[in-house]
């Protein structure tokens, strides 16, 4: 749920950054070869199509994109135009030389300044990987980067040159390109057909050592994990502390915010109502909730219950309204805001994540069960009666006051200099009016009860049937693709990267990052909960380490964590050099005291000593200033956990204003009376 700052070249950095498994197969040396499958003229693809680079390295080109060959480069252009991904095969003495040659082939006039170059672990048959992030200004609304991939004396350089709006909307198609970009003849490691080992003391020790080492490497105060195998809890405990500076330890009963893991539990509630005949997965939502309305009437008519948390309706991610207008917000106002949201892709065409739509899902189900209650109260009651109560999840709650008594974790973030410090809970309160999307507090032991039920296909531990199998499993079926190897269903992802299905979902709010996962073919499930923003970099490697231990996989997870930690430190340091904190006094003097946006409300600007603060009503943050390459000035929030919101000064003709953007939207704040 937490809005992470836009990071240049984030998609390719993640996809080629060492988080995926590699094969034990021997590497194959490549010589330059003709690319017989490359079009001589630009070709627009009618379907997802396997292709190769000029040297013959395979990838998948997305439906609707245009391909053309330009010397050693394969150029892929999305339907919107103005953005490109280039795959360039070159020789080079080292990665830097290869990237320089690739830019010369792709766009010799490109002048993006280099911000950061980082080495990543060798993966997927590539012998060396080095990523490059380039400086762009806020008004460019663009991310630019490159990755140099070496194999057999040759380099394949992937260049990512995409407008933010296109990159976000087509992120799953970008994954399609990169998640199978491997050297010719290389086969990725697969666990298909293997039997999972029993997690005995020795194997559990490998997992727990990994978690504790990762926690220390990333300076995360507290982590809790739980593992079930063959119907039994084999581990449920914690590492570190609930809050910095306090001695209380994390354990299996420590409450954390589990954020978007709430979505899967919300769709479980809907599945229970489907099983009870209250409605069907294909019932139009407008029949259940008359006030349900999107900005596009045609899309509104098409939305069935199964589409509410499918990320497939074409509505883009649009979180700013609930993040900045939380004070006084209600479930009813969240529903009303949906009517202002316009789709940016066709229904069912692309994966686009929508928290307000997920909120509507929970409110619709609650309203059907408790039509006389207010939407939020109805949802809370439905979740208690249909999910938390029957599954014995006694510590799970939407009540923040109750959650933050006794054994609970506090959030932590990074300050402007990259130090781990306690973070405010204010921004986490903004999700309460949209709580079906991510406001649950829970524990490892409680979430394991949910995971075990999923593994048992609807049975409770005593053998009682809790829910019919068919509506439960319907939630795992693909609604929209997440690339070649993963799909999104109803609040659940299914990842087959390693040859076996891993069902999971993650959760992100300020200072809380988590994941729950299960292997339905092997009767194993796991949960990881963390209480600091760098905890987001543990959960993917934790999943990988679990598979390594279960299947004797190639050991990669430890190196993945170390690489993520280095990259985090280096990227924070690079960004810190560009910031002035406290904010530049002259730039602050030019600000108005108050601003207002019709969509996002008010900003009050104040000074406390040398520090400048932006107060948004429900929460506030100190800001730093930055002089951009295009001559503009930005103010960026830097309070721990609330960092990364960038306000660009857009004064014109004597009128003072600020602009805030997400990938696909722009919000203007004009000077206002105090």
TrEMBL record:
Entry's EC annotation: 3.-.-.-
Occurrences of domain Beta-lactamase-related (ranges): 210-535
Comp. bias (Polar residues): 46-55
Tagged with keyword Hydrolase: yes
MF terms in GO: hydrolase activity
This protein's UniProt keywords: Hydrolase, Signal
Signal peptide location: 1-22
InterPro entries: AmpC-like, Beta-lactam-related, Beta-lactam/transpept-like
Regions crossing the membrane: none
Uppermost EC category: hydrolase
Pfam families in UniProt: Beta-lactamase (PF00144)
Disordered, as annotated region: 23-57
Bias (Low complexity): 25-44
Entry-linked PANTHER family: BETA-LACTAMASE-RELATED DOMAIN-CONTAINING PROTEIN, D-ALANYL-D-ALANINE-CARBOXYPEPTIDASE/ENDOPEPTIDASE AMPH
Identification of the protein by name: Serine hydrolase domain-containing protein
Origin species: Luteimonas soli
């Amino acid at each position: 749920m937490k809005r992470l700052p836009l990071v240049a070249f984030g998609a390719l950095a993640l996809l080629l950054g060492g988080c995926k498994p590699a094969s034990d197969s021997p590497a194959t040396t490549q010589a330059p070869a003709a690319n017989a499958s490359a079009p001589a003229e630009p070709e627009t693809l009618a379907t997802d199509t396997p292709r190769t680079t000029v040297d013959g390295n395979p990838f998948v080109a997305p439906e609707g994109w245009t391909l053309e060959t330009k010397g050693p480069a394969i150029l892929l252009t999305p339907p919107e135009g103005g953005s490109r991904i280039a795959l360039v095969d070159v020789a080079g003495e080292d990665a830097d030389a290869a990237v320089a040659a690739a830019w010369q082939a792709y766009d010799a006039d490109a002048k993006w300044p280099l911000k950061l170059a980082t080495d990543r672990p060798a993966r997927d048959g590539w012998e060396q990987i080095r990523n490059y992030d380039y400086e762009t200004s806020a008004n460019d609304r663009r991310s630019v980067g490159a990755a140099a991939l070496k194999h057999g004396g040759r380099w394949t350089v992937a260049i990512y040159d995409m407008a933010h709006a296109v990159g976000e909307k087509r992120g799953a198609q970008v994954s399609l390109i990169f998640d199978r970009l491997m050297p010719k003849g290389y086969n990725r490691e697969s666990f298909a057909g293997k039997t999972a080992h029993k997690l005995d003391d020795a194997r559990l020790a490998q997992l727990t050592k990994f978690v504790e080492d990762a926690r220390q490497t990333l300076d995360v105060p507290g982590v809790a994990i739980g593992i079930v195998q063959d119907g039994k809890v084999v581990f449920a405990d914690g590492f570190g502390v609930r809050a910095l500076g306090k001695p209380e330890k994390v354990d299996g009963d420590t409450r954390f915010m589990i954020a978007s893991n709430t979505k899967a539990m919300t769709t479980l509630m809907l599945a229970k109502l489907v099983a009870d005949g209250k409605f069907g997965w294909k019932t139009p939502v407008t029949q259940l909730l008359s006030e349900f309305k999107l900005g596009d009437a045609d899309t509104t008519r098409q939305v069935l219950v199964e589409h509410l948390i499918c990320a497939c309706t074409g509505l883009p991610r649009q979180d700013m309204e609930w993040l900045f207008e939380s004070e006084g917000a209600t479930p009813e106002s969240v529903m009303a805001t949906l009517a202002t949201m316009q789709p940016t892709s066709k229904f069912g065409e692309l994966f686009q994540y929508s928290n307000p739509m997920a909120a509507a899902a929970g409110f619709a189900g609650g309203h059907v069960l408790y039509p006389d209650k207010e939407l939020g109260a109805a949802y809370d009651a439905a979740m208690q009666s249909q999910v938390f109560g029957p599954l014995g999840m006694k510590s799970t709650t939407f009540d923040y006051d109750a959650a933050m008594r006794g054994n609970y974790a506090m959030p932590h973030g990074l300050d402007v200099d990259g130090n781990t410090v306690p973070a405010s809970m204010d921004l986490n309160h903004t999700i309460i009016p949209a709580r079906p999307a991510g406001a649950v507090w829970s524990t490892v032991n409680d979430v394991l009860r949910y995971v075990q039920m999923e593994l048992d296909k609807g049975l409770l531990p005593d053998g009682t049937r809790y829910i019919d199998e068919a509506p439960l499993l319907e939630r795992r079926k693909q609604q929209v693709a997440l690339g070649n190897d993963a799909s999104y269903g109803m609040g659940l992802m299914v990842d087959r990267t390693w040859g076996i299905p891993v069902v999971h979902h993650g959760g992100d709010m300020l200072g809380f990052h988590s994941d729950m996962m299960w292997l339905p073919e092997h009767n194993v499930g796991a949960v990881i909960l963390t209480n600091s923003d760098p905890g987001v970099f543990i959960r993917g490697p934790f999943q990988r380490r679990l598979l390594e231990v279960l299947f004797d996989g190639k050991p990669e997870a430890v190196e993945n964590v170390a690489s993520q930690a280095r990259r985090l430190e280096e990227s924070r340091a690079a960004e810190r050099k560009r910031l002035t904190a406290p904010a530049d006094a002259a730039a602050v003097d030019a600000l108005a005291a108050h601003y207002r946006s019709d969509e996002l409300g008010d900003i009050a600007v104040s000074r406390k000593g040398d520090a400048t603060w932006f107060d948004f009503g429900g929460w506030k943050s100190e800001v730093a200033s930055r002089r951009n390459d295009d001559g503009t000035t930005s103010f960026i929030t830097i309070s721990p956990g609330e960092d990364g919101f960038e306000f660009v000064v857009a004064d014109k003709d004597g009128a003072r204003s600020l602009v805030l953007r997400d990938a696909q939207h722009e919000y203007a704040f004009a000077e206002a009376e105090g």
